[in-house]
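DM between two lab members

TW: hey, do you still have the D-2-hydroxyglutarate dehydrogenase entry open?
JB: yeah, one sec
JB: this one, 462 aa:
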Amino acid sequence: MTDPRLDALRQAAPALRLKTDPADLEHYGRDWTRRWTPAPLAIALPGNVEEVQAVVRWANQQGVAIVPSGGRTGLSGGAVAANGELVLSLERMNQALAFDPVDRTLTVQAGMPLEAVHNGAREHGLQYPVDFAARGSCSIGGNIATNAGGIRVIRYGNTREWIAGLKVVAGTGDVLDLNRGLIKNSSGYDLRQLLIGSEGTLGIVVEATLRLTDPPPPSNVMLLALPSFEVLMQVFAAFRQRLQLEAFEFFTDVALKHVLAHGAQKPFDEIHPFYVVAEFASGDEATEAAAMAAFEHGMEQGWIVDGVISQSGAQAAQLWRLREGITESLARYKPYKNDVSVRISAMPAFLAETQQLLSEAYPHFEVVWFGHIGDGNLHINVLKPDDVADADFIAACEQVTKLLADCLRRHGGSISAEHGIGLVKKPYLGSTRSDAEVALMRGVKHVFDPNGVLNPGKLFDP
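TW: and the structure you got?
JB:
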């Protein structure tokens, strides 16, 4: 028997594609967390802005919640539909709409994959510099919804810095055309920036005007082996002082073990406790000499025990695979993930305290560390043993996350660096935001989404 609410939706938007097969409900109703059982009402796949508006207006009339959906590569449960919501997938709205060579902007639909955005910018001799390992499957709309960062934040910043304009369907069904690509615009509140990082709770991004920049300079990649956790920041300071860093990524021997088991090539004969992938602008003898000087200085100080520098693009890709392949190599373990950040200056003290906390709290669990040390972002992945039930494992991890949240509060950090709050981190929002801030955020949501139809229960409870 057809749900009468869906009959009403078909009448409101006759050309709208709807999916109700159980396999589709499961596929579109979850993200990479895999913690909640998907149970959406249906999947709507609009082909244009007007159909998105029709869906939102229908949701208000019928009292049905909407979960906006991009590539569903999120790790915080922000795209989970487990309570009869309608999933609104933007995957059909995936085209480039306009390129402006003077403004150097590319306007795209929200469902366009990040890798396609990269390719589109490259066709015009430019680049969109936000990048991370999920580039082939994540969408630009999802990136905007979480203010995604990635591997080159140290050079280019987060998604926020590269959004010149947004077209958004608010929770009322109204279309908002925010900033319209302007460089200077002091005409009141910048609602564009408010929507970035709002996790689909204020509006549904349908189009984005992206700032592009010059292609990256020639670069080299260096893999460094470190003897201890404590020397990470000294190595970072030495390389940042001498080189124009594009990326500075860290991972442990445990992470390397899993990536090697997943097919990557072993970089050194010996296994070392810690590793850094550093990418830096190169192209001349002076830069190469500076890179070697930084490496030799680290060796002399005892901060670095081995290293290799790429001699080709293929070798650079092999070195990057050691870092970018970590998440995929851990997927089968259903890892419990923490994605945290502190100021770079606070990182040494925070790292020392966190390392001690986790070693004491997880004596029987394998913990995989990696992160963007150059921008203060650390990823902590706790792997579930096969003989531990999912519920018991999550309960144990959440007790430790409470302690980690307290540690972050003391160091002025954030419980979510780049993955959003979603469902996973909602209980710990108070470690990052004051009661007054959360109250204001609830008020903002009510203005944009008065009936609470957009991604309710994510970020904070109604």
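TW: got it. The chain has a mean pLDDT of 94. Residues 334-422 form a domain with the Alpha-Beta Plaits fold (CATH 3.30.70.2740).
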